[in-house]
Amino acid sequence: MLLQSHQGNIHLLPALPTTWKEGKINGLKARGGFTIDMEWKKGKIHTAHISSTYEQTVDIVYKNESKELHFKAGEKKTILF
To answer: 10 Å Cβ neighbour count for 31?
Structure first.
C-alpha cells in the first residue's frame, strides 16, 4: 500500500487508498538496506527522505516517473516529485 521494493526498485505509494488524502510515515524498510520517511498531501507524494545502509544504486518509482539514485553508505537523500 505505502511501499513496495523488488528487483532493484522502490515504489512509493503504489496503492494508497483514496480516503488517505494526507499522511506521513517514518522508518519504512525496503529491500537492500533502505529506510524511507515520506509525506503525502492531496493523495500525492510531497517529500520522501531515503537513506541507505550500503553504497548502491536504486530506482525510485512513483506513478509513471522513475529516478535513479546512487547512495554512499549511510547517505540520506530527499526527493521531490
So the answer is: 13
d(CA 70, CA 34): 12
* Model confidence band, residue 81 (pLDDT cutoffs 50, 70, 90): confident
67: pLDDT strictly greater than 90: yes
Alpha-carbon distance 24 to 45, whole Å? 9
Contact 47, 38 (CB under 8 A): yes
Global pTM value: 0.92
Question: Beta-strand (E) ranges in the chain?
Answer: 3-6, 9-12, 23-30, 34-41, 44-52, 56-62, 65-71, 76-79
**62 grid coordinates:** 512513483
Rounded CA-CA distance 7/81 in Å is 22
* 71 and 52 Cβ atoms separated by less than 8 Å: yes
